[in-house]
Amino acid sequence: MNKRPLILDCDPGIDDAIALFAAFQSPEFDLIAITTVAGNVGIEHTTRNALQLCEVAGVDVPVARGASQPLFRQAVFADHVHGKTGLRTLVLPAPTKQALPNAVEVIRQAILDHPHELEILAVGPLTNIAQVFLLDPTLPKLVKSITIMGGGHQHGNMTPAGEFNIVVDPEAARIVFEAGVPLHMVGLDVTMAEGLFPSEIDQYFSVSNLQTTTIHHILKDMVYAEGKQFKEAAYIHDAMALLYMLDPSILQGDWYHVDLETKSSISYGKTVVDYYHVTKKPKNVWVALGLDAAKYKANLKERLHRYQK
Amino acid sequence: MKRKVIFDCDPGHDDAIALLMAFASTRLDILAVTVTGGNQTLAKTLNNAKRVLSFAGVECLIAAGCDKPLFRELEVAPEVHGDSGLDGPVLPESNLPVDDRHAVEVMRDLLDQATEPITLVATGPLTNVGLLLSTYPHVKSKIDLIAIMGGSVVGGNWTPGAEFNIMVDPEAAHIVFHSGIHIAMAGLDVTHRAMVTKQDTERIRSLNKKVPVMVAELLDFFALFHHTMGFDATPLHDPVTIAYLIDPSIITTKEYYVDIDVDGEFTLGATVADQLGSMNQPANTTVMLDIDREKFVDMIVDLVNTYE
What we know:
The complex is a heterodimer of chains A (309) and B (308). Chain A is 35% helix and 16% strand. With 309 residues, chain A is α/β, with parallel strands linked by helices. Chain A contains 12 helices and 10 strands. Chain B has a single domain, classed as Inosine-uridine Nucleoside N-ribohydrolase, Chain A. Helix content of chain B is 37%, strand content 19%. Chain B is built from 12 helices and 12 strands. In chain B, strand 4, helix 5 and strand 5 form a beta-alpha-beta unit. In chain B, helix 1 runs antiparallel to helix 10 and helix 4 packs across helix 5. The interface between A and B is medium-sized, with 34 and 29 residues.
């Protein structure tokens, strides 16, 4: 079977970390590179974390350092969720390898090396991807698809209307949403629909090794209630996007026209889904609206249990 | 004790049915009907209000308000309500008198004279109500609730982000939602569940009296547009506000802080509800989210059946 060439663009980030661990156990993909972006925490942290997580997992994947701030706005971080370093209380040895200096160049080359085949999974602000498309507007039509963790139809989390990854760099998101690449949006409607409860995390692994104890530490650290109507659980937003790429049947959704609001003082960063099809504009985004929670959890566990050896 | 109500509207098929329900209810005392431009121009919505009330034999203080939004040009909805704003039934012209005062002055005077709180109902753009609150803020203390049809927590019907009534005059809505007066919001979240089916329409028609037959004819016309939108049944937006005042137990609600988007490119006119509490603001709005459809239809049938 041909492996699917993949760029994983991320800002680890605790949920990014779980997505990376799952990606490292996904032989369906040819993981060409991990590209980093400022988001959950600053670029020094997200890049170092990506390098450290590769070393913990024992994988040799290029890590390329990307944008240190959004296209036009001041950087905003989510260290109240991810801690100062981006991995909360997890402490890992300093990385022995260096990151490549230029994520944009790495992504661009990956697109050119795998025309019409490259898939991009972007689980942070979309700054790097937007910069690639701005530098060379012929590139979007060579990308097979982009899957993002970001946005939401029913609500935001950083603001009432906006989800963090999009709110941080709405202009970049707009460029990516309007690029013409088939876009799959795994947003808050599904990523907050179910998390791992503390009781499920307790006995998550039956084998203890460097990887399983690291993953377990992160999962325990993630248990958090965002908004009073959500249960305390580990909401692993970014991993769900990866698991959707591996098994689309975990999510239900449909194609909609989605506009990206960048001007509003209160709704900037909102992914405006034309749910009632009032615009008749082309359907540019597959929007995830429903989750098969049991299947999602089973698939996640199956991937992560591959470290039990 | 009857709840005292000033009813601001832009009839409109669903406004017309809401008016008939309100005047039929023993729980509500309608002090005035004030009219705004919206579904159609003010001249047409005023004429429609008069014709509906005349047809039903209702006498009430009627006043005309703003003919355009506070800061924008009027957008009307002929594709929904027809050229007259009330296409469908044949309604004779009305000679009901219209008060000389502006609707906003009528509201002010009624509120100034009031010895008990008054509820404002608004089923069109919030232009008149917004102008009232900004021009005569001293009347706020006399208003116990503003019950509106408008907005939506999730999705819009005029643009992807906005519902028609708020979209038409977002600045007026902004004044209302920031007024400090509590709002009960019947937005698309609930009105798209307040569905009236073909069978329901026939049930109303079979009451076989003048007003119910007229209501059935309004529903016939209102269904046409909604069929083109892909709805099997017709969402009866405006009557939900009246249903809420008559019997809130049939409606599911949540308390949210709601703000109005006045400067979005795609989200202009959105009612932005802080569902996760990230704004840390006290709730200003009771947002209606679901309705017991069967009881809602029963209520409409019972109320329109009170007319001869």
